[in-house]
Amino acid sequence: MGSGFPSLKMRFLQYPSLGYAMFMISGLENASSRIHLQLECYSCKNTGDEKKHVRELENEYSDCTLVTQAFGQLSDQRQKKTLITLVNTLHSAFPSYSFGHIQPTQFQRHSDHNVVTAGIDMKMMEIVEEYVPDFREILWKAILSSIEYNSCEIYQYFPELEVGDRTNPFFEEGLIWNQTFFFYHREEKKVLLLSMRCVSKLVTGDETFAGDYGDMYAQLDDDDARREHESSSEDDSDDERRARRRRRALSPTAYLAAVSPFPMPE
After folding, report:
1. Confidence bin at 131 (pLDDT 50/70/90)
2. CB-based contact 116:110 (threshold 8 Å)
3. Which fold has domain 11-204?
4. What PANTHER family does the record point to (predicted)?
């Protein structure tokens, strides 16, 4: 992108279902690795000042003859706007980082939605399915509630990853893999970012899991045992005893849903 261009922050669109999906999935781990998920949706509608800014950004490619897999001929006005939209989405999702020197060749366009869906599910399955067996339903229900997925153009971003690079939000010590997708709905003028990465706990030396479900249930049992000890049988109502039994019977999915600050999507 030559000398790069200044960023344009996009308007964040609030969808509680996306927050719910992130809460249910991000941070889950097995014995050796942890998964992180970021889901954010942005509006591509620009105000008058923003339109002027976009036109200034488009001048970067006024004489460009580059042809790429993702965008085709970059001298085409429509393709330039698409690239700028994706770059500005990154700026908006990761405001502490600069993406002014991204190359158009770092993006790839996917034509088969089913292949993308299956690939995302497969990446998450090894870690997430053990704790949240219905994670696919949670994830894709959230996505479908915020954007018309099957009508989206799908792009994938391939960042340049260097060991020790603290200027890149996609790299961290122990990184095993990372994938970043954009679901761009041109007619609805919005784009959804899905960014996920898997990090080795063995490399980082982090072998603890603050959200470990075994510890979670053990703590619940300890709390209930303490209450049983502190409360006499005549002070403990049948409703309270039934509530404790129901809580001990919660699945990991149900427990996370119960403590989530986001409402469960209908």
Report:
1. confident
2. yes
3. Protein Transport Mog1p; Chain A (3.40.1000)
4. REPRESSOR OF RNA POLYMERASE III TRANSCRIPTION MAF1, REPRESSOR OF RNA POLYMERASE III TRANSCRIPTION MAF1 HOMOLOG
